[in-house]
Design brief:
This protein has 15 helices and 13 strands. The protein is an alpha/beta fold. The two termini are 32 Å apart.
């Protein structure tokens, strides 16, 4: 691990890794939380009472487009509430017995560039966590990541994790005391589960959730893919898309992380904007047609064949439009064995290209249909409301059904 991690820290890590010099004691675990326009009291609900021997890296930040706004002011207040010293890059704060905070200040002076947003904030924290792991100051070689709007389960840091995985996505659920927000959260979650289930049924190895607040990453794997991308949104998806080419993305068996369903404009797309745009009636929420996942399965079978032949049907035309012919020709030259060619092909036809394939196939004649209709169809049901269907897909996912 030290070679990959050392090279990454020397060449690609953010400058805040120098803040590792503030740490003079050992911890068992490290948790990274980006915080923009959040409240200090959220940490009380977030952290399990049993958490101990823990360092929490809070990357308090403001993007440049929010400079001078009320959100900027609240983020500055958050620094004070967490006990950080202003105009210092970082402050080490005792939060409670056996839990310390390392608070990074990207509010007072150096703001986060608008286009880099939460991706850069996560990268700053995760790079610093990696530096501490590399120095032996954090004993568990995993970078736990979450957000301020969650409640972690009591056993979060005790959950056994598959040592062979490149990353882990914890079970999750969206909740709210507001009935409208709760229903929208259930619809959004159902969309995510429906898409993951469809990928699994198609035989895709990219059938996993991309939820930044429910993520844990193997330290060595994190370094090999050069960390979180500096993106204003989707940084979790793009990181996992690369990690899946190194090893499995595993889902631990444990109680879910509870994510607060809330409207937000912190990111250009993602949970907050999706909830704001969600129709009030679940029957009006659209989704990919179920047949598209059968088309995806056909595409994967063609790509895995010893000799790729696109054909003149819609699947073949979409694959050709995505560049499959030229790419697979190069792969055939570069790799001699069938196993290596197949792996290289599926590395190319990854989670992003799978999504692009779905969009192009939809435009080629399989328009969206109501989400509830689609889920009932794959479950073989005549009825069921959004909450019941979401629960069924969650259970189906936990049992491994659909793969």
């Amino acid at each position: 691990m030290k070679n990959a991690v050392g090279a990454y820290l020397a060449r690609y890590a953010e400058s805040e890794i120098a803040c590792a010099d503030l740490i003079s004691k050992d911890y068992r675990h490290v948790l990274v939380i980006p915080m923009f326009d959040e409240r200090a009291e959220q940490l009380c609900a977030l952290l399990p009472e049993a958490a101990c021997d823990l360092l929490v890296i809070c990357v308090v930040n403001t993007p440049t487009h929010a400079a001078g706004s009320d959100a900027h002011r609240r983020s500055a207040e958050l620094l004070a509430q967490l006990g950080a010293r202003r105009v210092q890059t970082a402050s080490l704060v005792r939060y409670r017995d056996d839990v310390d905070l390392l608070v990074i200040d990207r509010v007072s002076n150096l703001l986060v560039p608008r286009r880099q947003g939460v991706g850069l904030a996560r990268k700053i924290g995760a790079d610093l966590a990696l530096a501490l792991i590399h120095r032996g100051l954090v004993h568990t070689p995993r970078i736990y990541c979450t957000d301020a709007d969650v409640v972690l389960p009591a056993t979060y840091f005790q959950v056994p994790l598959d040592d062979q995985a490149a990353a882990w996505c914890f079970p999750y659920e969206h909740v709210s005391t507001d009935p409208v927000l709760h229903q929208r959260g259930q619809c959004y979650e159902l969309q995510l589960r429906y898409y993951r289930d469809g990928l699994a049924r198609a035989g895709s190895r990219y059938a996993f959730h991309s939820i930044g607040s429910a993520l844990c990453v193997d330290a060595d794997s994190y370094a090999k893919v050069r960390g979180f991308p500096r993106r204003a949104a989707g940084e979790d998806f793009y990181l996992l898309n690369k990690l899946a080419k190194l090893g499995a993305i595993s889902t631990p068996s444990c109680p879910p992380i509870r994510i607060e369903a809330r409207y937000s404009t912190r990111v250009p797309f993602g949970t907050g904007p999706a909830l704001a745009d969600m129709p009030d009636e679940p029957d009006c929420v659209g989704s990919f047609h179920p047949q598209l996942f059968a088309q995806l399965a056909s595409a994967l079978a063609r790509l895995a064949a010893p000799k790729f032949t696109p054909g003149n049907d819609p699947v073949g035309q979409v694959l050709e439009g995505l560049g499959a012919i030229d790419k697979l020709a190069r792969i055939n030259i570069q790799h001699r064995s069938d196993a290596n060619r197949r792996r290289a092909t599926l590395d190319w036809f990854d989670g992003l290209r799978s999504l692009q394939f779905m969009h192009r196939m939809r435009d080629a004649g399989w328009p969206n249909q109501p989400l509830l209709t689609s889920v009932r169809e794959i479950l073989g049901l005549a009825g069921g409301d959004v909450t019941a269907l979401n629960c069924m897909l969650r259970n189906r996912e936990a049992s491994g059904a659909g793969r």
